[in-house]
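Human:
Focus on the backbone:
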Amino acid sequence: MKKNVLITGTSTGVGLESAVLFAKNGYKVYASMRNTQKSTTLQEKIKAENLDIHILTLDVTDIQTIQKAIDTIIAEDGKIDLLVNNAGAGFGKTTEQTSEEEMQWVTDVNYLGVVRCTKAVLPIMRQQRFGHIINITSVGGLVGQPFNEFYCAAKFAVEGYTESLASYVSDAFNIKFSMVEPGGISTEFMSSAIHKTSVDGQLSSGEYLPIFERYMKGNLERASKSSLQVYQTGLEVAQVILEVANSATPPLRIRTSEWAEKFCQLKTMGDPDGTKLVNEVKSAFL
C-alpha cells in the first residue's frame, strides 16, 4: 500500500505545490482546505496528470472538520503515515493596532490549528507505532521581526510545541517530528500579509508610518539586490518538505534556503537541525 499524507492548506502556494509533488513521488495525497470552492487549480492538475490526490474539507480552526477528514482517511486506508501542517495566514500589524479578535485569530490559525491537527492524528500514529508530523513554521519562528510580532509569536509557539513533543513522543512511539522553516515565499501568502499591514493596519499615518516605510523599502531592496535568494517559490519549499518526509533520519528543524539559513544563524549555529538540544533534554528529564 502506498504511503499516504494529509496536507492542510492546499488551495494555493506551498500546500498546493506539496500536494502535487507528493503525488508525483508515489504518495496517496489527502489535500485539505477550508473552502473546497478554491480547489479549481488543484483539480485541474489532478485531471491533467492523473494524480492520486483526494480533496477534503478541513478548517484548522474547527475540530469537527478535522476529525471528519481524519475519519475519512482511516475508513479508506486504515492508517496515516504523514501529516503536513501547512495551513497558516500572514499577519503584520503593530501591537497597538491589533484588535483582540485579530490576536485570537492569528494565534488560532497559525498555532492552535497545528495543535488541533496534531492532537487528532497522534492517537492513530501512537497505536500504529509509526508516523511523521511535519510542521511548516518560518524563520519567524526563530527570529522576531518588525510588524510581525503576533505572527512570529504564533510560529515561536509551534516551534516550542514541536520541540517538546519530539523530546518524549518520538522514542516511545516511533513518531517523527520535523519543522520546515522557510524565509520569504513569493505566493499569495506574502501579498496577503502585506495587505493586512498596510491597508487593514491603517498605516497611512501616525508615528509608526516612517518605521513601516523603512521596513517595506528594506524588504524590496533585499529582494532585488541580495546575492542570496530571499523569496522562494512554493515549489522550492515543497521540495524541501518532500526531502524531509523521505529521509530515514529527518531533522527536527531545517531552513529552506541559503538566505534563511544565514538569517537564523545566530540562533541555530550551535545546533542547526535541533537534534542535539532535544537529546540533551531527554538526558536531563527522562
Q: What stands out?
A: The radius of gyration is 19 Å. Strands lie at 4-7, 28-33, 53-57, 82-85, 131-136, 175-181, 184-185, 231-232, 253-255. Residues 51 and 277 are 39 Å apart (CA to CA).
